[in-house]
Amino acid sequence: MSGEQSRKLIVLAAIWLALVFAPYWMAPLGGYTALATRVLVLGLAAMSVNFLLGFTGVLSFGHAAYFGLGAYGTGLALKFLTTSTPLSLVLGMLLGGIAGGLLGALIVRRRGVYFAMVTIAFGQVFYYIAFQWSSLTGGDDGLRGFSRQPLNFGFFQIDILSNTNYFYYFVLFCFALAVGAMGIILRSPFGHAMIAIRENERRARFLGIPVERHIWIAFTLSCFFIGFAGALYALVNNFADPKGLHYSQSGDFVMMAVMGGMRTFWGPLLGAAVFVVLQDYLSSVTINWMSFVGLLFVLVVLFFPRGLLGFIRRKSAA
Amino acid sequence: MTVLEVKNATKRFGSLVAVRDVSLSVSKGELRAVIGPNGAGKTTFFNLISGFFPPSSGTIEFEGHDITQLAAHKRVALGIARTFQITEIFPELTVYENVRIGAEVAGGYCLRPWINAAEKAGIDARVQEILKLAGLEAKTHRLVGELAHGDQRAAEIAMALTLRPRLLLLDEPTAGMGDQETYEITKLIRRLHQDSKLTIVLIEHDMRVVFHLADRITVLDQGSVLAEGTPQEIAGNEAVQAAYLGKAA
User: For domain B1-79+165-249, is the CATH number 3.50.50.60?
Assistant: First the structure.
């Protein structure tokens, strides 16, 4: 037991060290800080999807909707309401999370394919709203005309707008808050009950767990998390794109989670890293980059059904 | 005192009547066996009591409360726990984790995103106590899915016990077991009945187990009650022998 626990601690320390020093080790390897920032934000989104998929056993194919709502919420807040970057993030997260909570209440009785289909349908509703409501959202061109603002602590400011390293650390701080909250929830009685539902819904119900309410809460929490990721994404780009709401974006998140390993906590972050780095590299070589990412995905699913991290973990345990 | 009172319960699935006008009364501390040939409606009857689905007609009372239409998880909160004919466990979790989930639900923590050290210690003590009772201490950290069938059944009963039930429903607890495993489970059920004074209703095919354990026996046949009485009365009942025991012997 203690051997396994110390191994876990070492892995955890390695992950955080790699993240904290990413701006310094990525550059010599041909990367750049903004790429690391994207990995964090999309990784958080994939981990949010996996909070539901990997730990409650519920597949949503429409989580991009709440990601996109977070992005638009933050963009609109910065454009019209506030110059405070943290406040705009909170508003974006609230928009994504509350919308998720309301729609989630309507669909938690559905299961499997039906659940996935309804989540797609609701997601597309938001996509078309963003697409059509040009006066507010900028329509097809996306929402422009806002930018992240320096963090103002009264007596000093941190310029996260022009200094990409500062911005990376701001995003890492937000990422750590969200991931820490996820970790605490998954280790709590609430998280244990989520895993119970994933493992055996009937047994969970006859142990006295109110399954529908539990799935609804897990769905809503995951929408808050992905709304927060979307809010950060708006800051990354200083732009909110209707494509961020589209179900193909939801598919990308699911792909990252599955590729990285959906039964692992950190797998989706690894999946997002592989996805984002490949996209960055391949899209400069060919416009058909997605077919290569897709090929990799197929290979992973065929040969490492537990995902990349699941595979690594099994290897190191053996 | 009556713990479970079922009055004229009927369950129809389309034109099939799986349970027909069944009445049954179980008093506190009693161990009741429900027996009958395959297809007699025993499991459907259990599903009515545990809230898997409501009856088409009739009423079900638990300790004086009408629970006829109550959701399954609320019946658990009142004190009704059950196991299934085909073992229902959390296969990819350890024995400890399986039992802990029940203990946390019973403690009222299952919606809580945090737990403090004292509560955690309380849960841990409860889990250890139950594991000891079910004879699973040596397998605490094994994955339940990897255990032998008999141990999985014991783990399922252990999970039900964490809920501190006042009525325990066991659906064929010895199904698919060898002699040794049957003996162990029978011993466990006997302990629960005699030492913990638990009210138990069990469905069982193994007549040695039934006659060894039961205070009273209810015989179902084609959805209806054919007979009810003490093991001696049932053993001497000619209608039962014709419908059921005769075939078995």
Answer: no
Which residues in chain A touch residue B72, judged by CB atoms under 8 angstroms apart?
A: 205-206
Residue by residue, what is the 3-state secondary structure of A28-74? Answer: HHCCCHHHHHHHHHHHHHHHHHHHHHCCCCCCCCCCHHHHHHHHHHH
Cβ atoms of residues A100 and A60 within 8 Å: no
Q: Would you place residue B249 in the very low, low, confident or very high pLDDT band (cuts 50, 70, 90)?
A: very low
- Decide if A114 is inside a domain: yes
Gap from A182 CA to chain B (nearest CA, Å): 10
Mutate to test the interface with B, among A201, A203, A220 (most CBs of B within 10 A): A203
Tokens 């698919």 correspond to B176
pLDDT in tens, A240-269: 988 889 999 999 999 999 999 998 999 999
Provide CATH 3.40.50.300 ranges for chain B: 1-79+165-249
Give the pLDDT confidence score for residue A318 in this predicted structure: 62
| Torsions phi, psi for A59 (to 5 deg) | -95, 115
- Let me know if residue A52 belongs to a domain: yes
Widest Cα–Cα separation across chain A: 59
pTM given for the model = 0.90
Binary contact (B101, A214; C-beta < 8 A) = no
| Residue A80 counted as domain residue | yes
Contact A195 B141 (CB under 8 A): no
* The predicted structure's pLDDT at residue B59: 95
A214 to B111: CB separation less than 8 angstroms, yes or no: yes
